[in-house]
Amino acid sequence: MKLWVLRHGEAEPRANSDAERRLTAHGREQVLRSAAELLGQPLQAIFASPYVRAQQTAGLVHEALGFDKPLQTVTWLTPDTDPQEVIAELDKLGLEQVLLVSHQPLVSCLVGMLEQGHRQGPSMSTASLAELEGDWPLAGLMTLRSLSHP
């Protein structure tokens, strides 16, 4: 399985709620730089948090890649979701090439859990993209192939 984990681009500092924060112009530029790294990858699905900034990020990637399947919004990619829950959801999907678009602290915790078996993951700034590979999406059994920061 190949899994890409993308943190949303830079967002406005304030909105009526955290879930309503939108991408800034700089955030959109960051996302497009990260999307370029996904060109040519045989993605089967793009899953995104329902938060506005993640939806905007996933939408930009979707468009930049000319992805032909609909973007899938899931509640299990919000900032405070337990990484074990995400791993369980990934296991149920049975897909081989997946992009997840989410937030801190989840993205770092998830990468740490998949690679090292614990929540202490790498620092992921806005629009950071992690690429993991392994036979199964299980704690400690995936290899971090790359981590880029636009």
Automatic annotation (TrEMBL):
GO cellular component terms attached to this protein's record: cytoplasm
Classification via Gene3D superfamilies: Phosphoglycerate mutase-like
Pfam families, alphabetized: His_Phos_1
Alphabetized GO MF terms: protein histidine phosphatase activity
Full protein name: Phosphohistidine phosphatase SixA
Native source species: Pseudomonas alkylphenolica
Phylogenetic placement of the source organism: Bacteria, Pseudomonadati, Pseudomonadota, Gammaproteobacteria, Pseudomonadales
